[in-house]
Amino acid sequence: MLDWKSAEWACTNYVDKDATLVMVDQVLETEYNWIDLHYVSSQWVRADGSKPTATHWEANQPDLRFGKCAGFNRFTGLWWAAPCDQKLGVVCQQSGSTPTTPAPGSSRSQCQALADGADLVSVHSDAEKKAVEAMVAGAGGAAVWTGLEYVSQGLAWTDGSETAYIKPLVTGHVVPGADCVQLTADGHWRWQGCDKSFGFVCLLTST
Question: How confident is the model at residue 46 (pLDDT cuts 50, 70, 90)?
Answer without folding.
Answer: confident
